[in-house]
Amino acid sequence: MSADQNPLPYKEVTEPSYGQAAAESFTVEHVRKGVVVLRGSCPRCRGAMEVPLVGTVFDGMRSLLGQRRSTAAAPNEHVEPLVCTCDDTHPNRPEGRTGCGAYWTILLTTESL
Predict the structure, then answer these.
(1) How far apart are CA 86 and CA 48, in angstroms?
(2) How far is Cα 84 from Cα 102, in angstroms, rounded to an integer?
(3) In a structure prediction context, what are the per-residue pLDDT tens digits for the chain, which is 113 residues long?
């Protein structure tokens, strides 16, 4: 964000385009087996984000909760919920929170974890 722009206010909001924009622009770094880091810009505020994902944790949660997998996902895919975690300033952001409030999902394959 340039110095002459007003920061977006914090707002818990999503749009269908957020997930698509993140899926197209985020990069995936394989840190080690079962651990990847997603990096990119928030689709709403364009703030920099870095999101670590640990495959074995998600596999365990998915089997315990039965809610992580989308009914549309294939056996080697899961829907990953993401929220903006940028460090940019956003007016009206609740204390103790990060990001601009945007949230979305992306479809990941288990091979990427």
Answers:
(1) 5
(2) 5
(3) 444 478 999 999 999 999 999 999 999 898 888 788 999 999 999 999 999 988 654 444 444 344 444 445 577 787 889 999 999 999 999 999 999 999 999 988 766 55
Q: How far is CA 35 from CA 1, 58, 87, in A?
A: 30, 11, 23
Give the list of residues 6+ apart from residue 38 with CB closer than 8 angstroms, or none. Answer: 26, 27, 28, 49, 50, 51, 52, 53, 82
Distance CA 109, CA 72 (A): 13
Beta bridge partners of 70: none
Q: What letter represents residue 62's amino acid? A: R
Q: Is the pTM of this model over 0.70?
A: yes
Q: Three-state SS for 77?
A: strand
